[in-house]
Design goal:
304 residues, mainly alpha, Alpha-Beta Plaits, 2 domains, 9 helices, transmembrane, Cation_efflux_TM
Length: 304
């Protein structure tokens, strides 16, 4: 059986840890703006502004949780019991982001329905100014987080939150212009509902990715049948069974498999070739391979 290298507890080895500084800067920007938007939303009476502030609040919590998660995920295990380290912390943080996004969407819808038949007074000027400032803050945060969103599910969750906020800021600006042009606060409610729908759709999509990781589904873009075929083509391998492939956390795909060979002395060669193939072709960060020979009466391994 191949030996493995446990989690090293270094930020450089973990996708989320490498981009922690991006999360920290975005957290500072979003947190500072949230207070301004919340106060202005309450004073102006704008539901669109309040809804965007609510989403900003979700951003603040999400970015904070992401920062904590990346720190936990990259720390060394001192207990000896977390054999895969704490890398899954970022996945749980992303799940929190999903729940917060859905909660904000529900809140917006409830508030919008409560305004039916009772028009509110909205200060469009304050909406326009704060919406514009929010757009600048979100664009800067997007540029910061974009670089790590392709590598880390945690950073991706924060990135999608800011994407939704950027759309929200654009919506606030549009609502302010429409209210100012028509004098009707109807547009404020319509934009708020549109923001809620957008946030909910993004949350459901990200939630699906979280479920796939926690459910130990095959990594996105990796077909188990293709891995089986590739392992079967390794010189010396006559059969492959008990293959399992899953994602431990962003950028860390894991695989286990039993490889059958007809020659007992071919084990080391088969092991080296199979491990190299998985690493180079499928980017599997950690593979545990059990070598068996055809003269064994039964598989020495899992019975499920």
């Amino acid at each position: 059986m191949s030996h493995g290298h446990g989690p090293r507890g270094t930020e450089g080895a973990h996708a989320g840890g490498r981009h922690r500084w991006r999360l920290a800067v975005a957290f500072g920007l979003v947190g500072a703006f949230f207070g301004v938007e919340l106060v202005t939303g309450l004073v102006s009476g704008s539901l669109a502004l309040l809804s965007d502030a609510g989403h900003m609040a979700a951003d603040v919590v999400t970015l904070g949780a992401a920062l904590v998660a990346t720190r936990i995920a990259t720390r060394a295990d001192t207990t000896g019991r977390r054999t895969f380290g704490s890398y899954r912390a970022e996945v749980f943080a992303t799940g929190l982001a999903v729940l917060l996004m859905l909660g904000v969407a529900v809140y917006i819808v409830v508030e919008a329905l409560g305004r039916i038949g009772s028009p509110a007074t909205v200060a469009s000027g304050a909406m326009l100014v704060v919406g514009s400032i929010g757009l600048v803050v979100n664009v800067v945060s997007l540029l910061l987080l974009r670089g790590g969103s392709r590598e880390s599910l945690n950073v991706k969750g924060a990135y999608l939150e800011v994407v939704a906020d950027t759309v929200g800021s654009i919506g606030v600006i549009a609502a302010a212009l429409m209210v100012r042009a028509t004098g009707s606060t109807y547009w404020d409610t319509v934009v708020a509902l549109a923001i809620a729908a957008f946030v909910a759709v993004r949350a459901v999509g990200l939630g699906g990715e979280v479920v796939a990781v926690l459910g130990q589904h095959a990594p996105s873009g990796m077909e188990p049948t293709a891995v089986l075929q590739a392992l079967g083509e390794v010189p010396g391998v006559t059969e492959v069974h008990d293959l399992h492939v899953w994602t431990l956390t962003s950028g860390m795909d894991v695989a286990t498999a039993h490889l059958v060979t007809s020659r007992a002395d071919a084990g080391p060669e088969v092991l080296e070739a199979a491990s190299r193939m998985l690493r180079e072709r499928f980017h599997v960060a950690h593979a545990t391979l059990q070598i068996e020979t055809t003269d064994r009466s039964r598989c020495q391994g899992a019975d499920w």
